Amino acid sequence: MPRVTSNNSDDEAQLYCEKSEWQDITPIPQYDGINPIAPIFYTPEYKDATEYFRAIVKADEVSERVLQLTYDIISMNPAHYSAWQYRYRTLVALKHPLDVELELMDAFAIKFLKTYQVWHHRRLLLTALRSSAPSPLSIASKELAFIIRALSTDTKNYHTWSYRQWLLAFFDDEELWEGELPYVERLLETDVRNNSAWHHRYFVVWGRVRAEGEIDVGDVLKREIAYTKDQIALAPNNPSAWNYLRGILEHTKTPFNSLRTFVELYSTQTAPGEEDIVDLDNPKPGPGAQLPCAPALEFLADIHEEMGGEQTKKAIEIWKSLGNEYDTMRKKYWEFRVKEALSV
Amino acid sequence: MSSDPLDNDKSSLPRFARSAHASHCNRCLSGLPSTQVEADTSRLAVGFYCLGVMDMLGLLESKINETERERWRDWVWNQQSSGTYGTGFRPGPYMTGQDSLCWSDVTQPGDEYSEYDTPHLIMTYTALLSLAILRDDFKRLEKKGILKFLRSCQRSDGSFSSLPNGGDSDLRQVYCAFAISSILDDWSGIDVDSAVKYIQRCENYEGGYGQSPGGEALGGTTYCALASLHLAPVPSSSSSPSRTPLFSPHISTKHRSRTIRWLLQNQTPSGGFCGRTNKVADACYCFWSGASLHILGASGLVDNRALATFLSTCQFKFGGIAKAPEERPDPYHTYMAIAALAIYPPEDADESWTLPEMNALWNTTDETAQWIRDHIHNK
């Protein structure tokens, strides 16, 4: 089967209306209407290619040359979802090898990382390949490696992460899942504030559907708390890490109070001195840390509120200090928390 | 890094360049350069942002004459199309040939569109709002057809896809289906219960909602989730008070508190909101997060002044508002920034900052929302 090329130099300068092999087609110009809203001043190349595309759709043509035409259109406008739709339909009808299409789209996906259609197309391809390819798992595994390449150009790209998560859940195979935590840890080593990586950690550790008894939740929680504490020690004012910590405690219905010793280390004015006993379960903030840190104060106040009774007063004191000193942007919020606590 | 917004004395807020912002949008309405070709498949949305800016600035009638508005209404209606999947609006005429019977060879009898030119759910929402902004009488509205179209777009997991035969499906489309149902005042086109369950599955450990289940919490889709849950009809078994912007029976008190916390955490030291934890502020998230807080009844907790300070720095010197300072403006960010300012007017600012009341659930002015009620609901 001839492979579709994207850079046939003979064709490059030519418009479709100049190509001999397209002479059988009568192009259909666009009718924009009277007084159109936001008309686009199309380039001659785009105008030409889309005129042929309308004609192809009208003729219901399914052929190899449609692949070239749709490729050209989406190269000029990757958001042209009709061209993507028609391309996919043509690939399927021609029984075109979909793994070849996937590879053809690699550079394209990285170039147009922020375009939804790029990832949607890959989803369709992977869905079809799972039921038709001789070894779908190796394709999925290769795809995970490709996504790592794509993410390396933009480590927080939403579409790319969504696609990775979809792929993992769709194939749901231990072989694919097992590389995820090490990958997340590599990303967090580079940037501990990468919330997409923290989120992916949550997705992998807590979002994966497991059979009962497959894992020991207590062990996993212990490991995750230890990991997160270490990351907080590195960067105490990192809301991604604190949100993760809160998330896993809530998910496992573990009281916030169980982390009191750790949180107190970050809620005081001064870092604990070197002479203090080293407590591996509760890593201390580094020497340059800005203390107290607001997320720790908030956490400590939540512990006090959780305990209730006399401790509510301590929570109120902390909220006041957040509003007046440590987190003045949210002054109104901390005042609101005080009011709420007093009204109970 | 800008100075601490709290230190700004009140006179420091520059004037809001209303006229320049309107001109930016007016220019876009009359034409987009070829570099904006990606808008080809979302022109109605671009139109909505531009018209929305003019509406909020109260300049639609003075800047654009009635003849032009009439032609624009006609143009939007020309995008309404009926067929196998029901009726809705296409993004624009990018598949419309000069031969008006272009599709007769490949469509079923009576169909006005092919499989590659179907109506689009998000565009249908923006078309209805645009027509209301243009004060259309909605006599050409195919209500039954639109309800059928909504049915064609809903999937078995409760979500909706942009197109009846494919396309993306996530909270954005759910929101559009809910907004359209409430604009039509008819919920018979969608299965509300399964859609609500889908929305709830999108809530994430941080307190925000991801674009789809399992996704990272994101400001834009959090707005879609919250607005949908507040637009949804209240189940008759519920003993709740009537629907208000402060209450939805689909959100528990605990979840509500967690969402408010996360949203407020995203107001960055610049004064603007970021869309995700640890990202930089962006003008559009000032609306998505700000409107979300408003819907949850927590708008009193936002630092208005800091928000306006940030947005004032996103104003481009030749008009329009960009996503961040020093970036190029576009109609989307211009609209979202103005909508955010309408919800969060800075105290003691001069009259250039005065904007009309917003309907945060539909994302339009109160006056346009009232026009919808008068011209669609009571027909």
UniProtKB/TrEMBL annotation, chain A:
PANTHER family: PROTEIN FARNESYLTRANSFERASE ALPHA SUBUNIT/RAB GERANYLGERANYL TRANSFERASE ALPHA SUBUNIT, PROTEIN FARNESYLTRANSFERASE_GERANYLGERANYLTRANSFERASE TYPE-1 SUBUNIT ALPHA. It is an enzyme of class 2 (transferase). The keyword Magnesium applies. The keyword Repeat applies. InterPro entries: Prenyl_trans_a. It comes from the Eukaryota. Keywords: Magnesium, Prenyltransferase, Repeat, Transferase. It comes from Cristinia sonorae. This is Protein farnesyltransferase/geranylgeranyltransferase type-1 subunit alpha. GO terms for cellular component: CAAX-protein geranylgeranyltransferase complex; protein farnesyltransferase complex. It holds the Pfam family PPTA. Its cofactor is Mg(2+). Belongs to the protein prenyltransferase subunit alpha family. One of its GO terms (molecular function) is protein farnesyltransferase activity. Its EC number is 2.5.1.58, 2.5.1.59. SUPFAM superfamilies: Protein prenylyltransferase.
TrEMBL record, chain B:
One of its GO terms (molecular function) is CAAX-protein geranylgeranyltransferase activity. Residues 16-347 form the Prenyltransferase alpha-alpha toroid domain. The keyword Metal-binding applies. Signal peptide: none annotated. The keyword Repeat applies. GO terms for cellular component: CAAX-protein geranylgeranyltransferase complex. InterPro entries: PGGT1B-like, Prenyltrans, Terpenoid_cyclase/PrenylTrfase. Its cofactor is Zn(2+). Gene3D superfamilies: 1.50.10.20. Keywords: Metal-binding, Prenyltransferase, Repeat, Transferase, Zinc. Belongs to the protein prenyltransferase subunit beta family. This is Terpenoid cyclases/Protein prenyltransferase.
